């Protein structure tokens, strides 16, 4: 039996308890596919940003055994441009090839250790200017939820930690497993990394009509040739009002959202059925197999056949 993928969470003084618990909660719901350990740089208790400290079971030696290392965020006053020597030594023990993941201000740790130089990364939008000032060699993009740069992944604040953990599960085991985990954790199963962080988006008034009903209707009719006019009419709004309200609520345009949902549905069908690519394209609303191939490649960089092979093993000659 294959050993579970080991995720080691490195807790830093000033850590936010909510984000600290995200990896254990999300990866722990993946049916034993992951083992999650929590460690500190010295094996001692860790001060949180709340009125309590936590005791961890492991010291920095756990990092040597990690397949994935997650650094959760810590309170802003504890952010510095210099990594404490103990932290540098702890990160140096991570095995080559291990995946590094940060949530929110955890990116400061990776950057200060020189692990993000020349690479794209993100962090919480509120500390973006400080991050740029301290780490000019990092290609910071503070307008997205998370960035996957292969063996290094960075995410924005709070709930984007859920997004990046679900993204990793989807990347490792496919959308069916990720969706099951999302249902277990009662969170949205998928938000694209390139979706905007919610900066200065006002919450719609309680009396204002929203676009949720139109989105649900669209998901039930993805096989149709849906237009912005269709969605706006379903919400009883003008095109301009609907487009504005949709972007405020979802963080992306209706057209881009539709493509994302169609790609996601196509991925699910590639993983769970033997349908031909053209048939899948028709079921999810793309014009044909060529269109599906283009959008899937743009989203995840592979062809439908390659994606299916990844999650379903060797296919019969008929495919």
Automatic annotation (TrEMBL):
<dbReference type="InterPro" id="IPR029062">
    <property type="entry name" value="Class_I_gatase-like"/>
</dbReference>
<keyword id="KW-0805">Transcription regulation</keyword>
<dbReference type="InterPro" id="IPR018060">
    <property type="entry name" value="HTH_AraC"/>
</dbReference>
<feature type="domain" description="HTH araC/xylS-type">
    <location>
        <begin position="212"/>
        <end position="310"/>
    </location>
</feature>
<dbReference type="Pfam" id="PF12833">
    <property type="entry name" value="HTH_18"/>
</dbReference>
<dbReference type="Pfam" id="PF01965">
    <property type="entry name" value="DJ-1_PfpI"/>
</dbReference>
<protein>
    <submittedName>
        <fullName>Helix-turn-helix domain-containing protein</fullName>
    </submittedName>
</protein>
<dbReference type="InterPro" id="IPR009057">
    <property type="entry name" value="Homeodomain-like_sf"/>
</dbReference>
<dbReference type="InterPro" id="IPR052158">
    <property type="entry name" value="INH-QAR"/>
</dbReference>
<keyword id="KW-0804">Transcription</keyword>
<dbReference type="InterPro" id="IPR002818">
    <property type="entry name" value="DJ-1/PfpI"/>
</dbReference>
């Amino acid at each position: 039996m294959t050993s579970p993928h080991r995720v080691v969470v490195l807790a830093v003084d000033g850590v936010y308890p909510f984000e600290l618990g995200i990896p254990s909660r999300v990866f722990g719901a993946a049916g034993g596919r992951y083992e999650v350990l929590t460690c500190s740089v010295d094996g001692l208790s860790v001060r949180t940003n709340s009125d309590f400290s936590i005791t961890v079971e492991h010291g920095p030696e756990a990092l040597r055994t990690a397949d994935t290392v997650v650094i959760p965020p810590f309170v802003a006053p504890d952010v510095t441009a210099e990594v404490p020597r103990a932290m540098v030594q702890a990160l140096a023990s991570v095995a080559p090839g291990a995946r590094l993941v940060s949530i929110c201000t955890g990116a400061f740790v990776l950057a200060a250790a020189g692990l993000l130089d020349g690479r794209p990364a993100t962090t919480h939008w509120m500390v973006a200017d400080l991050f740029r000032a301290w780490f000019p060699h990092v290609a910071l993009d503070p307008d997205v939820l998370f960035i996957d740069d292969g063996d290094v992944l960075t995410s924005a604040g709070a709930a984007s930690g859920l997004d990046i953990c679900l993204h990793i599960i989807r990347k490792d085991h496919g959308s069916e497993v990720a969706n099951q985990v999302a249902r277990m954790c009662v969170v949205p199963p998928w938000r694209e990394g390139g979706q905007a962080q919610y900066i200065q988006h006002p919450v719609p008034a309680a009396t204002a009509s929203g676009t949720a009903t139109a989105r649900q209707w669209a998901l039930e009719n993805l096989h149709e040739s849906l237009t912005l006019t269709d969605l706006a009419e379903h919400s009883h709004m003008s095109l301009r009002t609907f487009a504005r309200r949709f972007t405020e609520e979802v963080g992306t345009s209706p057209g881009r959202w539709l493509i994302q949902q169609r790609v996601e549905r196509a991925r699910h069908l590639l993983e769970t059925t033997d349908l031909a690519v053209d048939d899948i394209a028709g079921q999810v609303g793309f014009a044909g197999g060529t269109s599906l191939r283009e959008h899937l490649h743009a989203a995840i960089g592979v062809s439908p056949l390659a994606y299916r092979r990844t999650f379903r093993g060797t296919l019969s000659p008929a495919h």
